[in-house]
């Protein structure tokens, strides 16, 4: 009887455990230089600004949060062994930002959970530009 009670309690606690919604899109690029991570306050990135060397690679990324009318749901682009050259960012409302030169190898970052959104970008930079990039996704409290 005791063993049945223990099994029942364990099964109930497993059912009550929340589903994991966090996922990571592994970094692309060569990865030389200093590591960075940039995230929105309260876990939600609602705006992104990207700089590029004229006609060349991505040199900087800035994110921020604000009123949550839309979130970032996909980050795609192109990279080579030395730099990230192109970024294509898509929002939950279907708007997009395209920056850089579409050359070299492709990447496509998106969350596994359809309710998840971009919460953090990480990677490496070498002073001249972004050498690698990865994306972190999760369902935020506003989405639950």
From TrEMBL:
Keyword annotations from UniProtKB, A to Z: Lectin, Signal
Domain of life: Eukaryota
UniProt GO MF annotations: carbohydrate binding
Residues making up the signal peptide according to the UniProt record: 1-16
InterPro entries associated with the record: Jacalin-like_lectin_dom, Jacalin-like_lectin_dom_sf, PolyBind_ProtTraffic
Jacalin-type lectin domain boundaries: 33-139
Protein's recorded name: Jacalin-type lectin domain-containing protein
Organism: Zoarces viviparus (Viviparous eelpout)
